[in-house]
Write a structure and sequence with these properties.
The chain is an alpha/beta fold and 315 residues long. It is built from ten helices and twelve strands. The longest helix has 17 residues. Zinc ion (ZN) binds next to strand 3.
Length: 315
Amino acid sequence: MAPGASLMTVRGPVAASSLGIILPHEHLFSMFGEEPAELHQYDRQLLLATVVPYLENLRAQGCTAIIDGTTAWFGRQPALLRDISARTGIHILTNTGYYGAANDRYVPKSALEESADQIAARWLAEWTDGIGGTGIKPGFLKLGVDAGPLSGIDRKLITAAARTHRKSGLTLAVHTGDNPAALHEQLTVLRAEGVAPGALVWIHANQCPDDAAVLGAAAAGAWISLDGLAADTLNRHLALCRALKSAGRLRQVLLSHDGNTFRANGKRPMKTYAALFTDFIPRLTAAGFDQAEIRSLTAHNPALAYAVGVRLLPQ
Ligand SMILES: [Zn+2]
């Protein structure tokens, strides 16, 4: 790890070397599926009563940090994350950016009119001044793309994110799922903006059934987020870890659950995110992954992927 590398958490910068196991793609709470709003109202008491004990339990199992993928317009609330982080001792990263998947439902109208530079300026203002008067800085850029080739708005948002990266060093985490063609289009946009593939995380790469496409994206230099860990996905996750290890790409792999502790104000059931600890690490060990490899997958890789740092193509 680069000496001095740090992650920007909701309570300020934290040295990457000080962190143990990190869950790089979860949601502490969200209003996904509900009407978009700039700031959603949560049942705060119920939320804290649900989320805090869950995180305390994760911490007891060795979790040191969680990267929260809930974006503006479907429930991001940095101050609430900061409160939870202080109560549980778990480090938390929130994000800037707009979620362009779900048919652009959660993209604000302003972004349809604005240029990529204008959108980047909004995101950079969150980076320099903090989000919505809280003083809390985003730790990464969260984006999303729809199925098929990149749409005009999705391309504009990726362009804005690449430009934001150049000035902030924030990593791009893009909900892409089973759309390797769009992943390659994103890499093309990044290249045109002079940004290296190592600034990009392919979120939900585990949904892509085409191993060659996953290995190809890793060979191109992108981070591979296998984030749907659950009891019924363990075999597929293990097969992908094995394939990436054989290809010499284990150091680009991230493991998480895409869980969610408090959905739609408690109206939807929790999606748990402990299978890494209870099932998958034992599964990796049984499959012959050694301690150093497991540490790389669960701690070192996510720290490196989300450490703040400008990653440019060589001139
Ligand atoms: Zn997610």
